[in-house]
């Protein structure tokens, strides 16, 4: 790799360069927020457009610098999913903000705010954790679906005559159970049911315990477990590779430890 390319690679990985990009993303988010006010748009609309163009130009320059820093091994850039996401945001931002694609272009500008995730390692770690948790979430969602289905059918048979507004059909029963599991005014539904069946509280309390506390705690435990694994992988990636001298030193230390162990065993016998 030429000397200038090594220097460029160091530049795009410096904290100052990263902070500059984060500042541009935050500034872009501020402009998008101000554009929701018609008064600001009428008075400063042209400046907002100029800001969008300058920010887009800065993002294009950033992408070109990062690609140039690893050229011709472009896989180092496009092989990173976060770099690929950033590049896709830039491509979508190049859509014209007028005509039939105006709405798509404006929504694409919102994606620039999501670049804050790729710019901050902590947020990347959280997103990576959520992505790792998706397969495990499927099993928990299946368990939750079974519990919902059983309780929905039971609720229909128990309460559809006294409270058809909430339990009149299987769909309404499932919707009511979703309301209960969010703990949104679920006691009103329970008291209505208790007017006919005094022991209906058993049904509701058992569902709240199973659906809210048990299932949600399973989700939390699974996410925390994946978070620890993602942290371990991140630390392994950041750890510098061992040099030849380090390997020889570790090998020598291991040999000395084996010699001491053999002497200790000989003395014991």
Stretches where pLDDT falls below 50 for ≥5 residues? Answer: none
Largest sheet: none
Q: Figure out the total of helices.
A: 12
Task: Report, as a whole number of angstroms, the end-to-end distance.
Answer: 59 Å
* The CATH top-level class label of the largest domain: Mainly Alpha
Find the CATH superfamily of the largest domain: Voltage-gated potassium channels. Chain C
Q: Write down the CATH topology of the largest domain.
A: Four Helix Bundle (Hemerythrin (Met), subunit A)
Structural class: mainly alpha
How many β strands by DSSP? 0
Question: If you compute it from the alpha carbons, what radius of gyration comes out, rounded to the nearest whole angstrom?
Answer: 29 Å
**Into how many domains do the coordinates divide?**
2
Explain the overall architecture.
By secondary structure, the chain is mainly α. Helix content is 84%, strand content 0%. Helix 6 (102-119) crosses helix 7 (121-159) and helix 7 (121-159) packs antiparallel against helix 11 (201-238).
Features:
269 residues; Four Helix Bundle (Hemerythrin (Met), subunit A); 12 helices
Task: Summarize the entry for a quick read.
The protein has 269 residues and is mainly alpha-helical. The protein is built from 12 helices and no strands. The mean pLDDT is 81.
